[in-house]
Amino acid sequence: MKKLQILIVDDDWKMRNLLRIYFSKEGFDTVEAADGNEALLKIKNHAFDLIILDVMMPEMDGWQVCRSIREVKSVPILMLTALGETKEKVQGLELGADDYLTKPFDPDELVARVHALIRRSTVTTGKLDKNKLIFPELIIDRDGRQVMIQDQPLELTQKEFDLFDTLAINNGRVLSREQLIEKIWGFDFEGDARVVDIHVKNIREKLKKAGLHYSPIQTAWGIGYKFNPEGGKS
Questions:
Q1: Which distant-in-sequence residues (6+ apart) come within 8 Å of 42 by Cβ?
Q2: For residue 23, which of 100, 115, 152 has the smallest C-alpha distance?
C-alpha cells in the first residue's frame, strides 16, 4: 500500500526535521519546503494527502500560501503558528485552512489532528466518479449541472447550483460569504453579501421539499458556510 504523503512547509529547518521525525514514525512519507514559493512549486507537481503550513515565514507568509493553494487544490491544510489569537485562527479558516495548531504543541495532538483531517477528507469528502460527487443521499453531476436527491432531480437556479457545488467541492471547509461571492458572482459584484444567505435559504427549502431530512449546508456563525454530507445543525 502506498504511504500517505505530507508536505511540511516551514522556514525553520529544525521544525521541519522534528515534524519529519514525528510523521515518519507514523508511517507517512514527508516532503519539505523551506518557503512559500518552493511549496507552491511542489504542490503544482505533486499530489499530497495533507499540508502542514507554518504561518510566519519571510517573503510569502502562510496565509498567502494557503490562499494560493485553495485556488487550485482542495488538499487538507493544517496551519502552525506561534500566534494564539482567535482572530488569527479565523483568518486562517477564512482563507481555507482546515485546522490550526499553536506552537508549542503536543506531538500526540498534532498527529491526532492530522489523522482526523485525512480521515475526514477520504471518508466524507464524497467519492468522485468522473465528474460526479457521490454522497450517501445525493449526487452532484458537475458536467450536467444537476443535483440528484434519491434519484430525483433537484431544480436549482444557475447560482444556486454554483453555490451548492462550490461548498460540496470544499467539503468540511468553512467558506466566508466574501469568498463565496468572489467565486460565484465575481470580483466586481457590488450587491449585498446577504445574497449568499438568501441562496442558502432557498437551497435548504428545496432540499427539504425533495425529501432530504437534513441540510448538508451548515452555518459557520460569524464567518459563512460549510458543506457536511452527514448533516448536523444548520
A1: 7, 31, 33
A2: 115
The proportion of the chain whose per-residue pLDDT surpasses 90, expressed as a percent, equals 33
- C-alpha closest to that of 148 among 134, 138, 162: 138
Q: Is the dihedral of CA 120, 233, 93, 83 positive or negative?
A: negative
Which residues, 6+ apart, have CB-to-CB distance to 179 below 8 Å? 94, 96, 224
Residue 123, φ and ψ in degrees, nearest 5: -100, -40
97: exposed, middle or buried (Cβ count in 10 Å: 0-12, 13-18, 19+): buried
The strand pair at 99-102 and 50-54 is best described as unpaired
Beta-carbon count within 10 A of 195 CB = 17
pLDDT tens by residue, 206-234: 999 998 888 899 999 888 999 988 765 44
Peptide bond before residue 104 is cis, with ω within 30 degrees of 0? yes
Q: Which residues of 213-234 are buried (b: 16+ CB within 10 A; e: fewer)?
A: ebbbbbeeeebbbbbbbeeeee
Contact 178, 169 (CB under 8 A): no
Name the nearest CA neighbour of 22 among 99, 117, 105: 105
- What's the burial of 186, exposed, middle or buried (CB within 10 Å: 0-12/13-18/19+)? exposed
The pLDDT tens digits for 68-88 are 888 777 788 898 887 665 666
Q: Which residues are registered as beta bridge partners of 138?
A: 149
Q: How far is CA 63 from the centre of its chain?
A: 14
Cα(9)–Cα(32) distance, rounded to whole angstroms?
Answer: 6
